C-alpha cells in the first residue's frame, strides 16, 4: 500500500483486518453465550510472540545485543511456522478447557485463516518486470550507465529518495550490508533528485556508498512498476527478478532476504 510515493507494508494491515474478521465471527457465532473473542486474542498474541522470538533467535547476531531493536516489531521480522504452531496449540488448549466456546472459536479461527489466505493471494495484482530493465541511469559524475554490472554477481537494486523517511532509516543498514556482503552487488538508485541533493544526503549522514546512481526521470521505477519508496529488487546473476520488497529493511530482515534468495552465494557470510 502507498500514500503518495511513500510505502506502507501491506502484511500488517491484512493481519489486523483478519484479526478483526476473526473477532467478529467469534462474537456472532457465540449467539449471546460465552464469548470466544478472548480465546482468539490469546491465540493471536501467542502466535505473534512465538513468531518474533523464533526470528530474533535465528538472526540474533544481526541485532548485536540491542534489546530495543529485538522488541521493535516494525521491521516485520517474523518466522511464521513457529507462530502458527504456537497459536494453534494455544487455541486447542483453550477450546479443550472451554467446550462452550469451541464452535465459535473454531469458526473464528477458520474465518481468520481463510481471509488471510485470500487477502495475501490478491495483495499484489500487478506483476513487476521479470528481468532487469534495459535503461540507463546517471553515475555521480553525470555519465549514463546501464543497471547491469556484468560481473557475474546477483544484483540488489534499491530505489530511494532522500525525502522519504523509511528510505533514510534503512540507508545505513544497506550501506553496512554492501560492505559486508561483497558476493552480491548492491546498487542505490536515487529517484528523481538532483546530484546536489543526493551528495548532500550522503555527506550529511556520513555514508560510504558504492554503486550510487541517479534516475532523474524515474525510468527504473516505471519499468519495474514501483509506485512507492523504498523499493528493493533482487535479481540473480542473469538479471532475472527473484523478489520485490516494499518498505525498509532492518539488518536482520535484509539478512533473511539474502539467505532466502541467494543461499549458496552468501553462505558463510551470514551471522
UniProtKB/TrEMBL annotation:
<dbReference type="GO" id="GO:0015036">
    <property type="term" value="F:disulfide oxidoreductase activity"/>
</dbReference>
<protein>
    <submittedName>
        <fullName>Thiol-disulfide isomerase/thioredoxin</fullName>
    </submittedName>
</protein>
<dbReference type="InterPro" id="IPR013766">
    <property type="entry name" value="Thioredoxin_domain"/>
</dbReference>
<dbReference type="InterPro" id="IPR036249">
    <property type="entry name" value="Thioredoxin-like_sf"/>
</dbReference>
<feature type="transmembrane region" description="Helical">
    <location>
        <begin position="6"/>
        <end position="26"/>
    </location>
</feature>
<keyword id="KW-0676">Redox-active center</keyword>
<dbReference type="GO" id="GO:0016853">
    <property type="term" value="F:isomerase activity"/>
</dbReference>
<dbReference type="InterPro" id="IPR017937">
    <property type="entry name" value="Thioredoxin_CS"/>
</dbReference>
<keyword id="KW-0472">Membrane</keyword>
<keyword id="KW-0201">Cytochrome c-type biogenesis</keyword>
<keyword id="KW-0812">Transmembrane</keyword>
<dbReference type="GO" id="GO:0017004">
    <property type="term" value="P:cytochrome complex assembly"/>
</dbReference>
<keyword id="KW-0413">Isomerase</keyword>
<feature type="domain" description="Thioredoxin">
    <location>
        <begin position="121"/>
        <end position="263"/>
    </location>
</feature>
<feature type="transmembrane region" description="Helical">
    <location>
        <begin position="38"/>
        <end position="60"/>
    </location>
</feature>
<dbReference type="GO" id="GO:0030313">
    <property type="term" value="C:cell envelope"/>
</dbReference>
<keyword id="KW-1133">Transmembrane helix</keyword>
<dbReference type="InterPro" id="IPR050553">
    <property type="entry name" value="Thioredoxin_ResA/DsbE_sf"/>
</dbReference>
<feature type="transmembrane region" description="Helical">
    <location>
        <begin position="80"/>
        <end position="97"/>
    </location>
</feature>
<dbReference type="InterPro" id="IPR013740">
    <property type="entry name" value="Redoxin"/>
</dbReference>
<dbReference type="Pfam" id="PF08534">
    <property type="entry name" value="Redoxin"/>
</dbReference>
Amino acid at each position: 500500500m502507498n500514500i503518495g510515493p511513500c510505502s506502507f507494508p501491506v502484511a500488517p494491515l491484512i493481519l489486523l483486518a483478519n484479526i478483526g474478521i476473526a473477532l467478529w465471527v467469534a462474537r456472532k457465532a457465540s449467539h449471546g453465550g460465552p464469548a470466544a473473542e478472548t480465546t482468539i486474542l490469546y491465540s493471536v498474541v501467542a502466535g505473534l510472540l512465538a513468531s518474533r522470538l523464533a526470528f530474533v533467535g535465528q538472526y540474533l547476531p544481526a541485532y548485536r545485543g540491542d534489546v530495543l531493536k529485538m522488541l521493535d516489531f516494525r521491521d516485520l521480522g517474523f518466522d511464521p511456522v513457529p507462530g502458527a504452531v504456537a497459536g494453534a496449540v494455544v487455541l486447542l488448549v483453550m477450546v479443550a478447557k472451554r467446550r462452550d466456546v469451541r464452535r465459535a472459536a473454531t469458526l473464528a479461527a477458520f474465518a481468520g485463516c481463510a481471509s488471510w489466505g485470500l487477502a495475501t493471494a490478491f495483495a499484489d495484482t500487478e506483476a513487476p518486470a521479470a528481468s532487469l530493465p534495459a535503461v540507463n541511469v546517471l553515475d555521480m559524475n553525470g555519465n549514463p550507465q546501464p543497471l547491469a554490472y556484468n560481473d557475474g554477481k546477483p544484483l540488489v537494486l534499491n530505489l530511494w529518495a532522500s525525502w522519504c523517511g523509511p528510505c533514510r532509516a534503512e540507508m545505513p543498514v544497506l550501506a553496512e550490508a554492501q560492505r559486508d556482503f561483497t558476493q552480491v552487488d548492491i546498487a542505490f538508485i536515487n529517484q528523481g533528485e538532483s546530484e546536489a541533493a543526493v551528495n548532500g544526503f550522503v555527506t550529511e549522514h556520513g555514508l560510504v556508498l558504492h554503486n550510487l546512481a541517479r534516475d532523474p526521470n524515474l525510468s527504473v521505477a516505471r519499468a519495474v512498476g514501483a509506485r512507492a519508496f523504498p523499493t528493493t529488487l533482487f535479481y540473480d546473476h542473469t538479471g532475472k527478478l527473484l523478489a520485490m520488497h516494499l518498505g525498509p529493511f532492518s539488518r536482520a530482515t535484509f539478512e533473511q532476504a539474502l539467505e532466502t534468495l541467494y543461499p549458496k552465494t552468501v553462505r558463510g557470510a551470514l551471522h
